[in-house]
C-alpha cells in the first residue's frame, strides 16, 4: 500500500482486543521498517519498489530489527531516565514480540495481494501466490475498517473507565 499508516489498522484492532498480548507500537515499527525500502526506491526513481523487505525473509528481518530496536530503546530509556508515558517500560516482552511478528507478516501478506513485483515466498521460492486473490479495494477497506474497529473499541474502553 502506498500509505504505510493504512497497515496500522489491523494492529490497532488486535491491540484493542488484546492490549496485554499485542503491542501496537511494535506492530507499527515493523511496518515502518518494511516500508523504508519502497520509500527509498520512490525517492531514487528506481523501480521495482517492493523488493527484499516485502518477502517472507524480509518480514523476518523486520521482525528481528523491531525486537532489537525495542530492546535497545528500553535499555537506553531507563539509563537516560526518559519518562515512562504509557508504561512503556512495563510492557510485556511477549506482547512486543507478537506485535512485531504480526506487524511484519501482515504487512507483506496484505501487500502481496496488490503488487505483481513482489516475490512473497523468497527465500523459499520466487512466486507470489496471493497476487490478485483479493482486490485493491477490499484490502484498503479492510485496513480502514480495522482502524475504525480499533478506535471504537478503545473509545468504549476509555468511556467505561471514565464512568466507573
TrEMBL record:
Keywords: Membrane, Transmembrane, Transmembrane helix
Pfam families xref list: YdjM (PF04307)
Transmembrane parts of this sequence: 53-73, 94-115, 135-156
Name of the protein in question: DUF4184 family protein
Originating species: Ardenticatena maritima
Amino acid at each position: 500500500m502506498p500509505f504505510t499508516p493504512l497497515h496500522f489498522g489491523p494492529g490497532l484492532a488486535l491491540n484493542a482486543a488484546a492490549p496485554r498480548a499485542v503491542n501496537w507500537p511494535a506492530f507499527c515499527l515493523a511496518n515502518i521498517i518494511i516500508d523504508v525500502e519502497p520509500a527509498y526506491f520512490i525517492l531514487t526513481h528506481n523501480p521495482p519498489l517492493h523488493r527484499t523487505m516485502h518477502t517472507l525473509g524480509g518480514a523476518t528481518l523486520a521482525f528481528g530489527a523491531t525486537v532489537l530496536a525495542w530492546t535497545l530503546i528500553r535499555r537506553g530509556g531507563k539509563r537516560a531516565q526518559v519518562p515512562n508515558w504509557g508504561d512503556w517500560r512495563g510492557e510485556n516482552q511477549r506482547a512486543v514480540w507478537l506485535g512485531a511478528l504480526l506487524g511484519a507478516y501482515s504487512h507483506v501478506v496484505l501487500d502481496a495481494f496488490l503488487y505483481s513485483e513482489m516475490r512473497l515466498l523468497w527465500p523459499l521460492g520466487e512466486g507470489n501466490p496471493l497476487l490478485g486473490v483479493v482486490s485493491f479495494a477490499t484490502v484498503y477497506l479492510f485496513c480502514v475498517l480495522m482502524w475504525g474497529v480499533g478506535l471504537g473499541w478503545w473509545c468504549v474502553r476509555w468511556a467505561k473507565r471514565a464512568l466507573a
